[in-house]
């Protein structure tokens, strides 16, 4: 398990904060609402402990899960409250289709929103580091968040420690608040560390966060 310095944690938080801000801009343009963000909260957590935390709520969620492949092997998870999030389909599907009672249409719409958010965020991070980040196809589940997580993550990883980066997003003039979790295993942080030293030293000032 890697131990992180305060400077390293601050840098990672800033990198992901910039990425999520880009995602918020994309979502805001789509739904024509301002999106506000919380300050990133970073913690070192075992996956099994995160599952236990999620078990504290019985609320159903629309969860979009995406595995981030080489070179930044990690997980991106977005958890939308089920009832409020379903209203978002009005922004991404034609009005006639939005009125249809189709679970598949709703799932596809939420998946598309998750794709937009994760793609915008990771695109910003890739630009910062000057790399290409590969993404697997998204997985969506509509159920209890702990069940969603258990179905998504590799069971062998449940005992691994992750750097959990959590950021909440609030959609203006709605009751919709949802949160992201980026789960970075040690291998992902090792990759970030190699680039952080260079960026913190000014190796790519034109891309580094201000």
What do you see in this structure?
The chain has helices spanning 6-31, 47-54, 82-85, 95-98, 103-129, 145-152, 186-200; strands at 35-37, 41-46, 61-68, 74-81, 139-143, 161-171, 177-184. It has 210 residues and is of the alpha+beta class. It has one domain (6-200): 3-Layer(aba) Sandwich (Chemotaxis protein chec), CATH 3.40.1550. Strands 1, 2, 3, 4, 5, 6 and 7 form a seven-stranded antiparallel β-sheet that branches. Mean pLDDT is 77; it is low at 203-210.
Describe the structure concisely for a colleague.
This protein is an alpha+beta fold.
Keyword list:
alpha+beta, 23% strand, globular, disordered C terminus
CATH superfamily: CheC-like
| Level-1 CATH class name | Alpha Beta
Looking at the structure, the CATH topology is Chemotaxis protein chec
The low-pLDDT segments are: 203-210
Query: Got a strand count?
Result: 7
Helix content estimate: 40-55%
Q: Over all CA atoms, what is the radius of gyration? A: 17 Å
Number of domains: 1
Beta-strand content estimate: 15-25%
What's the story with the biggest beta sheet? 7 strands, antiparallel
From the N-terminal CA to the C-terminal CA, the straight-line distance is 29 Å
The rough form would be described as globular
Mean pLDDT: 77
Could you spell the SSE succession in H and E letters? HEEHEEHHHEHEEH
- Count of DSSP H/I helices: 7
